[in-house]
Fold this protein.
Amino acid sequence: MTSTDDIRKALEVVIDPELHRSIVELDMVRSIDAGENGVVDVTVSLTTPGCPIKGHFQTAVAEAVVALEGVTHCNVYFDVLDDTQKAALRQKLGRGSLPEGSLAQVKNVLCIGSGKGGVGKSTLTANLAAALVGEGKRVGVLDADVWGYSIPRMYGLGSTRPPVSAERKIIPLDAHGVKVMSIGFFVEEDAAVVWRGPMLHKALTQFLQDVDWGELDYLLIDLPPGTGDVSMTLAQLLPQAQFLIVTTPQQTAQKVARRAAQMADKVSLEIGGVIENMSGFTTPSGERFAIFGEGGGKELADELDVPLLGRVPLTMPLREHADSGVPLVVADPDDPACQAINQVARGLIAMAPMPLPVLPLVEVGTPAPVAEPAAVPASAGERKPAGMSLPMA
């Protein structure tokens, strides 16, 4: 009979998709009861009663346990962590609050920051999201630049108020295949947002926990300039996120972007790469001008030991389509800036971790005898094959 220790060891492969750790390591396996008839009962503790990833645990736990020798069936039960257990889990994770499952179905979170304004970060975010959709990915954009929100205008959404589901979750608006959420949907169009840190923290927490993002391959978060409250809040709420740094080629912008990298390092956010924007301008006659200098993005990437994901040139259509509400990658795929952004999107896809296929265990034994087919007379000149028959895979 399979022991309790064997079952607990098998459950180490069950990963909480939001906390990115094993349910055994997180002490979420509350009890294991192995019966003599091969039926195993496992109780898993959740952080909230209505956790939307309950189905994930139901399937993963059952599959892990049934794969053990001697187990014929696995019943999975659930309870909820009490306040003391939640406090212990928060202490183990080193974070102030636990997620409530709203981002459980988001595979990759990318925070796009620059350390300063005016480098085209929002334009890149809007177009990069559309480029990822063009590569067949499910994508969402969170406009976390609360003071300087511009994503709604870039997607042609204005101040449209998003609907609320029956489960009291905010449903993000859809534009060009991208799910979009912004503070701009909840204020008058182009109205100023005058908030202090605690209100920002509350709003961002609500955008992450009370928005029905659904299944996403990528959630792109457009950060505000600087290294203040918003960046620290997101680092606290999203410890698994990657940080993408946008800079222009000039040394001044590069030095400021380096401060953003230092902020990411201090709050333990992984830096995924550097994107150099406004990387030269080419006239219709073919003459190229390095208006903002050259080489700053590559120098910063080398200093941080991360890849330079792309160099996006200055083009007039890139600015025109940002103002018109249609991303350039949707309207003009032949534009040089569009081609560079598509290159960045493909680089991000190549960097994303891919789950390895799990091969099923095959029991090796003596195959049951198979009845020989009726003999068919061989025609003249036809040779009868000799040897033993091998089962085909």
